[in-house]
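Sample intake sheet
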Amino acid sequence: MKRTYFFRNIICLVILAITVLQACKKDNERPKSLPDRMEILDTKSKVNGNLVESLVLSATNTFTLSFKNAPTGTSAVISAEAVNGISIPATTVELNGTSSVNVPLTGKPTTDGTFVLVVNIKVNGTTYVCSKEFYVDLATVTAIDFALAETPLLNVNKVTDIDFDIYPKSTVFTIVPSPNLTAEIINVSPTKRTLRITPTAQFTTGTVAITATFMAIAPVTRTLSCNAFAAGAGTTAAPFEIPDADRMNRIAYALSGNFKLTSDFTQTTATTSTSTFNGTVDGNGKTITGLTITSSADKSGLFAELGPNAMVKNLILKNVNITGQNNTAALAGINRGSVSTVTVSGTINGGLFVGGISGTNYGSITTSDVNGLTIKGLNSIGSLTGGVNTGSSQTSNVVLVLPDTFPTEVYGIASAKTVDFVFAPSDGTIAVLTTPALLTAAPVSGQQKLTLTPQAGFLSGDLQISMQKNNLSAVRTVKIFSKQAGSFFDGGDGSVASPYIISNESALDYVRNDGTKNYKIVANIALTKPWTPIPTFSGTLDGGKFKVTGLTINSTTANDGFINTNTGTIKDIQFLNVDCKTNAAFGVITGKTTGGTIQNVVVTGSVISTNTGDLLGGISGELSAGGKLTQCYTNLNISASCGMIGGIAGRLTTSTGAITEISYCTTTGSLEITASKNRIAGILGRAEGTVSGGIIKNCLSTVNITATVAAATTANGIGGIFGADQNANIVPIDQCMFSGSISAGFSIGGIAGVGSTITNCIVKGKGPLATQPMLSAASTTPATGNIGGIAGTNKTKLENCVVREVTIKSVITPAGFPNAGIASTYQNNGYTKNSFVANTSIEGSNTAPNWDNNFRISGTAANGTGVNSSNFVGTGVTIVGRTSAITNDLNGLDGQVKTQAELTQSFFQGIGYDFAIWKIDTDGYLSLKNVGYNGTLPTP
């Protein structure tokens, strides 16, 4: 029995209208929600359980709060003031992510009707408000009126809504859907509901069972049959009807069903292509247009495979575009069933076994048409099917097959030559698609042959050809070589006029078999295996400015490198990303260069030496006997425990009658000293010999040299360009520049740790932009010298040198081991003349009296017969902590100050600077014109 309270219900509806407008909004103090902020989901929150007038609520009566984007562990307090006798006492819950929580309802409904429960959710000081409608029934209800018809549902391939009436109003529903279906009940009004059924893309058929319960009354169940298709039951007599692409794709989830197309449609993808089908498809003369498949897997088509019970008939596939691997076709990768009256047009590309209907056929294919189809593959390409097997049948099938003997490489094309490219069918033709440079290829009429004609300079290249028959084609790339099979080189006889031609790793490695010949690289080469050094080389290796990448050497033998001993010429090569490890004397390109030349060679990568002796060079370990390293560039990260380290050469040894030279080279990167060693520099580590016969000129280093903790106070004889020499005046240094940094023990110079005959050199730092000293000494017991902007210790002359924007700092400057802007100490009649310091900071001991052992030009007076003279200081030179007077004396230790206005070209020319070598920069200070490598650097 139903009881109506008209006036009371009107008031409730007014309250409902007001509160619904505020549903699930936070209080006004909070900003609007953003996508990633926590939100209360009103549509999913609900009041649960039967509600009966004057009946105390039970444990089944709860409120479900749904939410999203709650941070893990969010604490919330949920409450609601009493409405019609129902409330939610303050309840603390934890919210995590996107989910829901249940809290109990308490109380006893006072009357029946429709009401709104206003729920407050407090989270971190913010209150959310959610208003939910609920219904209360009379206690006199005796039956459930569930007006949901059990009519079978078709076209359930999308969200489907079914409206129905229900009484009592607070009836509770339990829903059990089949797999790949979800279902929910949505309240529309007190007595009206909507059943919403949502299928997945995999759903074909199933049921939704809904059970309605109210108190102790007998429950009522309705079961709805659901079908994703337009009609049918999937049987032979009543096949599923397919009106569109969505239903066509659902075949993949009913692989034994029977189907019939009822409309033409466009299908751009096919989920059926991953499965084996054993049912039937009657195309009913309908057309599927635009089927597009791009797959990296085998067995590509509308179906991956048709099983032995499968049947497909009366189907048109129009404008297909299918790309797959082996067993690719429009209808099926493999057919084991029956195919009849199928028409295909469009394009198919595959690997092995490619066809218009199936890639490989074990079944039957009859009365089918592929005349509007272009089919391409690597081999076994058929009009209907590419692979024909015993027991299969296929009418009017043409198969294009390339034999196993079909050439992939052709050698000996040094002059015009006709080459066979035989395949089946024998009346198939050959089309030339692309040819390499300096080679022409022409089909021979009526024959499966090509005439290959090289032009002057042809070595090798890729020829792309297409073997064709009607609408079938197989594309192959054939490598053509001018050399004979078995030859390592692409041409040449090893003479100066005709060097051996190298285009690959094997040919480069073969050089070791005759190091007296001449070779030329004509292509970039990637080394794929560790390199075994070439023992000796006296010929010419012309890199042609190509790149050799991945040089990897793991050496335990002295004087190893790409080549051990070089007396020949190596030029115009870029060795990129080298990875060298050694525990002995080593040079990346040559262990020793004895009278040979290395020119325009670039090296990048890393070198690690665990050698406890001496010798490591970024280009050559040892340089002697008139050898020349010129126009070389290195960008290396070096870590070494040995002495005699140079970014270009480890050691230069002079000899009578020949000048051993390092010129126009640049080094950059890093050099880490891991042991207490000496004679280390950015260009050359050590010079030895008893006679003059070497030179370093026009070189640039930006290397950052550091000593690890183990060597920080003891590593010495370290320079930006040169480490230390054995005797005075054997290897002069001219027109060189350093702009890196050095942090080690003692005897440190921007140009040389211990050097002699240094002229026209410059050390340039970063000035105020520097984050650490450019030249830094950590030793508390220095020997031979401390820090000089040009030289830690200088032998013989030091003239026309410049130090700019440099920061010099040592831990201690005891008497006899000062810091100075140009040179710390002198030997062998050493002196400084015509040199200049500007914008430089010099700092040593921080206590008296040693803090006074810091000078703008020279740390000590000249040695022996040497005389310091004509040295100058520009603006910005500071000596930190010095208390003794600074005397402006052009012949003294601190030099004479010149203003910026006085530092003109005429002034410097007047004290001996050659402006064919020097220039004045835009900032008014001197700089060298021609320094370092000026060749082509590798691109990233």
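Comment: The longest helix spans residues 6-20. The chain has four helices and 88 strands.
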